[in-house]
């Protein structure tokens, strides 16, 4: 029985300690004003602490602070100073505006070269996140020359009057490109949320040297499928 009693008491002490730690969190302004108002009405500090589910020491410090400063708002804590200044933050933002593909490590190196003060890449990321900039994969589209635009428009105008029966004979049309250069899906850019399809955030991919087009079309039902391969030399 004694062992069970000791275990129960230890569990209760842990719960009480956890609750006291929860109650020691910073109070928001509305709760502080409410506590001060109740104290001004003549209530005891222990009664206010019980009413608001707080520790008595919290109410005691709050009341002393109000009597000393005539203000219930919390003073700003003396935490660790920011390693970057406002000028450093503007410099990082300017570098990102110029080159969106710079990594946090590269930005930290550029800032170190400018101010001669070491800064981690995590700090650079946090500063840019505060400005609403995050790393995202860009939208990649094919780079179209004026001739390509005119050709696609001409093809669309020729086929805009096609009926569903005419389109029913077209089995598939696929245009494949073979790329031996870098993959744009591995690159990331710094951009704001909701700006995915803006022109500066879109990468235009140059057409490759060779392009193969497969077109399968069945001229008549119940006839063998004819496939045409077209090789185009991209300019």
Overview of this structure, please?
The protein is α+β, with helices and mostly antiparallel strands and 235 residues long. Among the domains are: 27-74, Arc Repressor Mutant, subunit A, CATH 1.10.10; 86-131. 46% of the residues lie in helices and 17% in strands. The strands form 3 sheets. The protein has a 3-stranded antiparallel beta sheet with strand order 3-6-7, with no helix packed on it. Strands 1-4 form a two-stranded antiparallel ribbon. The longest helix has 22 residues, at 2-23. The radius of gyration is 34 Å and the shape is elongated. The relative contact order is 0.08. This is Transposase Tc1-like domain-containing protein. It comes from Araneus ventricosus. One of its GO terms (cellular component) is nucleus. Residues 1-24 are annotated as: Disordered. One of its GO terms (biological process) is DNA integration.
Q: Averaging pLDDT over every residue, what do you get?
A: 76
Report on the biggest sheet.
3 strands, antiparallel
Supply the CATH architecture of the domain at 27-74: Orthogonal Bundle
Side by side, the strands of the main sheet go 3-6-7
> N-to-C terminal Cα separation, in Å?
90 Å
Specify the CATH class of the domain at 27-74. Mainly Alpha
- The CATH topology of the domain at 27-74, please? Arc Repressor Mutant, subunit A
Pfam families: HTH_Tnp_Tc3_2
Subcellular location: Nucleus
Region (Disordered): 1-24
Biased composition (Basic and acidic residues): 9-24
């Amino acid at each position: 029985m004694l062992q069970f009693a000791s275990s129960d008491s230890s569990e209760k002490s842990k719960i009480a300690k956890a609750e006291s730690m929860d109650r020691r969190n910073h109070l928001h302004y509305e709760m502080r004003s409410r506590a001060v108002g109740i104290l001004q009405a003549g209530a005891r500090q222990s009664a206010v602490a019980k009413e608001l589910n707080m520790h008595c020491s919290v109410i005691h410090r709050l009341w002393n602070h109000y009597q000393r400063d005539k203000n219930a708002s919390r003073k700003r804590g003396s935490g660790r100073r920011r390693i970057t200044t406002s000028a450093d933050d503007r410099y990082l933002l300017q570098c990102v505006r110029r080159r969106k593909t710079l990594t946090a490590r590269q930005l930290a190196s550029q800032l170190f070269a400018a101010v001669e003060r070491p800064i981690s890449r995590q700090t650079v990321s946090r500063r840019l996140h505060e400005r609403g900039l995050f790393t995202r994969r860009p939208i990649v589209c094919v780079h179209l020359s004026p001739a390509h635009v005119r050709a696609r428009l001409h093809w669309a105008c020729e086929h805009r009057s096609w009926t569903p029966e005419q389109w029913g004979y077209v089995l598939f049309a696929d245009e494949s490109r073979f790329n031996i250069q870098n993959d744009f899906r591995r690159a990331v850019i710094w951009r704001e949320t909701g700006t995915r399809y803006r022109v500066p955030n879109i990468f235009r991919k140059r057409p490759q040297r060779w392009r193969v087009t497969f077109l399968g079309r069945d001229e008549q039902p119940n006839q063998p499928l004819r496939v045409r391969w077209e090789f185009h030399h991209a300019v």
